[in-house]
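Appendix B. One record, verbatim.
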Amino acid sequence: FSYQWEWWNLYRPRPVSKEALYPIEAEFGEPQWALGVTTYAFHSSHQLICTYSQGGTWNLAKFHIPNKTLEPIPLSFTEIGGPIVRGNNIYCTASSPSHPNALVRINVLTHQVEIIRQSMGVQLEAQYLSPCQPIEFPTEQGRTAHAFFYKPQNGDYTGRSEEHTSELQSH
């Protein structure tokens, strides 16, 4: 991984420099202070299984090294972390606004998902969950900022349509 052009992307070392394997506006890495975190694992000498964040959600993909192609694995999860590959299975943690964090097994070939263990035994009702919507907006110097919008939702209450409130949290 390297931070050559403001994104943590995949690179291959070369004798004199680095070769960008798949330049894309996405993060293939995690903050450097998060020790012991991995975002990729080798499936074979020619294929990586990797996670990347784009547009506010994490994705899982197969990266074919010889032809430098990224093949996203379609999943209903928006947070995916720590992939480990054993044979044709990927083990990782995964969650979404409607699925609590879980240890999952994903077949590399069929993309079939099996939940091994969930972090919560309680299932929350969707009518009380505010779905997360990734949003983008322009900032200074032509850059784009990313944020999440949580539209208020409560199955027991309906507000007046002319009232709109938002809360902004930054970290």
